[in-house]
Design goal:
- There is one protein chain.
- By secondary structure, the protein is α/β, with parallel strands linked by helices.
- It folds into 2 domains: about 180 residues, Rossmann fold, CATH 3.40.50.450; about 130 residues, 3-Layer(aba) Sandwich (Rossmann fold).
- It is built from 10 helices and 13 strands.
- The protein has a 7-stranded mixed sheet, sandwiched between helices. A 4-stranded parallel sheet has the order 7-8-6-11, sandwiched between helices.
- The longest helix has 22 residues.
- The termini are far apart.
- The protein binds 6-O-phosphono-beta-D-fructofuranose.
- The site of 6-O-phosphono-beta-D-fructofuranose has 12 residues, from strand 10.
């Protein structure tokens, strides 16, 4: 009998609720499945460059199922193939060899999967696990973290609704999601938004102003309006950019469209308009029960792929089934809200203005 497998695991890109649940599931399932030893690489791919790692025994992952963030830390800029002006990939592979690692489990979004695929090409066997609150990874119907983000949006809208009604105001809530409208759409539906604006659908300021004007006349002037806007919505064709992170693969960080919308809308209506930017509240904190279970299923499936020697694949949820697809199938693709999606019909069917 050969030595037990030795597997490295890392979390890359922005954090999201459920990462620890995956780390826990992979560690426990690998120990049960094939007695494998697990090493955690710290701060995503940066740990391979900075040579930072630590052993992960089943006892190390006890009690982390419900914990937000990632116990391993993460990094949303470091790509060892081009980090601070140099290619560190050979040194990263050498570090894995020194550790005696047989394979790598990489938990992350599209950027992480692309880097993972390049390591696979250098001879490091890899299994990917998809994560993003944005829910925009192709070939998987749900990424863990999304449900938790939606729950935060719904709660924020619930809270905004009562203050909006008290003052007869228009309340704008801006969500994350990058160029996909999933969080705003599902969160907006869950929180009873009257208007949901997503990047995939064109929007008219005039139509929004008319809806807001109708509010002023409703309930003797005490009507209110809840607007849920995704950060990737364009105003007059332009994205609203919060900042640029120059050494990142995707340097543009969106944010602020809600405030711009408020400035544009206020002069067109009589009632007061306020805006709230939810920001990283959507990424922090404990995962929902749904995300804990999904993350656990993903982690166990990743461990099964490792034990079976099926590398170069990413775990995915298709319908109700956890399965896997070739890593190469997702490179450079994203998954926007399709214009005929059933959620859009549900929104329109309940009178929500979508653009
Ligand atoms: O991709 C996840 C996400 O939270 C996006 O929704 C958001 O635009 C971005 O990351 C924020 O990135 P950062 O944490 O670097 O500000």
């Amino acid at each position: 009998m050969g030595a037990p497998l030795h597997i490295a695991i890392l979390t890359g890109g922005g954090d999201c609720p459920g990462l620890n649940a995956v780390i826990r599931a992979v560690t426990l399932a690998l120990a049960r499945e094939c007695g494998a030893r697990v090493t955690g690489i710290e701060r995503g791919f940066h740990g391979l460059v900075a040579r930072r790692s630590r052993p992960l025994a089943p006892a190390d992952v006890a009690g982390i199922l419900a914990e937000g963030g990632t116990i391993l830390g993460t990094h949303n800029r470091c790509d060892p193939f081009r980090w601070q002006g140099a290619d560190h990939s050979a040194a990263a592979v050498a570090y894995l060899r020194e550790l005696g690692v047989d394979a790598l489990v990489a938990i992350g979004g599209d950027g992480t999967m692309q880097i993972a695929e390049r390591f696979e090409a250098l001879g490091v066997p890899v299994v990917g696990v998809p994560k993003t609150i944005d829910n925009d990874l192709p070939a998987t119907d749900r990424s863990f973290g999304f449900d938790s983000a939606v729950a935060v949006v719904a709660e924020a809208l619930d809270r905004l609704a009562t203050t909006a009604r008290s003052h007869g105001r228009v309340m704008i809530l801006e969500t994350m999601g990058r160029h996909a409208g999933w969080i705003a759409l599902e969160g907006g539906l869950a929180g009873g938004a009257d208007v949901i604006l997503i990047p995939e659908l064109p929007f008219s300021l005039q139509a929004l102003a008319e809806r807001a004007q109708a509010v002023e006349l409703a309930d003797g002037g005490a009507g209110s309006l809840l607007v849920c806007v995704s950060e990737g919505v364009r105003i007059d064709g332009d994205l609203v950019v919060r900042e640029r992170v120059d050494d990142a693969a995707d340097p543009v960080r969106l944010g602020g469209v809600g405030h711009v919308l408020r400035e544009r809308l206020q002069p067109l209506v009589g009632c007061e308009v306020r805006s709230t930017l939810l920001g990283h509240m959507q990424r922090g904190g404990t995962p929902t029960a749904f995300d804990r279970v999904l993350a656990t299923r993903y982690g166990v499936h990743a461990a099964e792929l490792v034990a079976a020697g099926r590398f170069g694949r990413m775990v995915a949820l298709q319908g109700a089934q956890v399965t896997s697809i070739p890593l190469a199938d997702i490179a450079g693709r994203s998954r926007p809200v399709p214009p005929d999606h059933e959620l859009l019909r549900a929104a329109r069917g309940t009178g929500v203005l979508l653009g």
